Amino acid sequence: MPVLRLTVAYDGTAFSGFQRQPAVRTVAGVLEDTLSKVLGERVAVTGAGRTDAGVHATGQVISLPVARLRVPLERLPLAVNALLPADVKVREAAEVAGDFSARFSARSRAYVYAVRTAALPDPLSARHAAHVPYPVDDGRVREACAHLVGEHDFRSFCGVLPENGITVRRIEEIAVERRGVLLRIEIRADGFLHRMVRTIVGTVLECGWGRRDPQSIPAVLAARSRAAAGRTAPPQGLYLAGVRYPDGYDSFAEPPIFGPVPMPEAPAR
Fold it and tell me: Which residue in 11, 33, 52, 137 is the catalytic one?
């Protein structure tokens, strides 16, 4: 049975999260309904990340088994996108090994968080970046983030505990970059807990505006209590930006809030 890997992007504003739920609009629900029409069979998708309500994606990956491919693979994104609503689209499609799972085959995931640090709010970016109306010291944010890189028990940064109770994860890197009034925070790890990125961002921002000492982060980790960490940053600033797999595929795409991605130069004739 063929297995498809689709890379999708969506604006999470009007979705009640990724995972299909009864009586509410979800990303998986919209994708499954549309793909079922195009493929001529009922399908169920597996996502690399179960994003919450209001969270966006530029590099979400889904997988689905199909009985047979009724549409040429190269035309599948066009056919599906013609029926999908404007706030979710397929970027690319590929046929992969039968044991591939968008979720369980992933080697790492990257999330990007956008923070707009300005005195006055901006209505044009309100759905795609968190607004912070006071100065943030980028150096203090980087200092706090440095304590989180590596393998740690992130229970203090977890909303709902996982069913297996395991809260140890490995953060491979955290990059903090200033782009004008926007602060870009990218976190790549082997896995994430429920609301882990948003809680990390909320906590390091408290360090950035002087409410919390960056050197307190090791004690927050050691506490293994959600009460020890800071506030949960709002969902609209968060993007599932990319997923890496053992075969070398990386779905990463820069969130458009940070500007257009430079296009490659046309080859000389």
Answer: 52
